[in-house]
Amino acid sequence: MTGGPDREAGLLDRVASFGWRYLIVIASVAVTFYAIGVIKVVVIPATLAFFTASVLSPPVQWLKRRGWSPLRATWTGIGLVVPVVVLLVLLVGPALSTGFQPLVDDFQSTTDSVVKWLSTGPLSLSESQIQSFIDQAVTAFRSNLGGLTSGLVGGATVAIEVVTGVILTLLATFFYLKDGDRAYAALLRRVSRQDRLHAQLSAAWSTLSSYMRGLVIVGLVDATFIAAGLIVVGAPLVLPLAVLVFFGGFFPIIGAFLSGLLAVSVAFANGGVTDAIVVFVIVLVVQQVEGHVLYPIVFRRVLLLHPLVIVLAIASGGVAFGIIGAFLAVPLTAMAVAAYQAGSADPDHSVVALLRSPLYDEGDPLADAD
Description:
By secondary structure, this protein is mainly alpha-helical. It is built from eleven helices and no strands.
């Protein structure tokens, strides 16, 4: 066959070229993650500050455009939010402090009932088999998602890190709001391709701002309807469960599933199988409405990621940096996708476009209803 060795040599060259580039990328990512892990007490607060700044930025920028000084506008924007947060803590805090322990007790009671059914029901599993399965699940959870709980224990060191992180987050948020626009303008003046960089950074920032607002809306809707369902069936601990559902919304897909599972377990522990089925149906309906109606409307052209990408991002962030990493993973991924697409010559046919959800394909009616 003519030219066979040349074609094989060309193929090997291309494979080798791709291989060493791939190794360099993997090594760079590994070194970056290691470096972030070493100084995570600084990197994580600095990153979280972008999230809080994205929420506070609109009123602060509005005041700046009307002639307020950056310092005055920033303090005013922060001052408008602090009383609301304090009021919510004062109103909800007492109920939460007394409600979470019964919540844990109900979940334990449900778990015991499930274990009993496994041993006395049609499966007829022995207690040793059940305990073996539980031990294997716990071991797998600790080994694969140990980062999710690694920050919950550690005594004084962890307490110091938490306090330091909160202070750094507040300081970084303040300076992002006060000087962020001027630093951004100065950055653009120092690069050659200003238009492209401006488009990419604007897309990333718009994605983050819309994402945070969308999470609050979705969390409130989920918590309201699930709480209403719990009230209808007469389940206790409605407020703690509603709060958990709300914050579960900050972890797309996984958070809604876990908080819904907890609501079902509480209904089962207090009302039996019938109440548990009713709450399960309510949770299922709410999550279906969330995924197929609310998400496309609230996160329209913002969170274009496929559900599998979202799950993998949350899992990767949790493994690498614990609960904070799981929270940050999805918006950071969405920002990176938005920035890449904004700088791409053909965003609809780029490699990154493969990550988007089918809900936003060109033929989808929700994507064409502008």
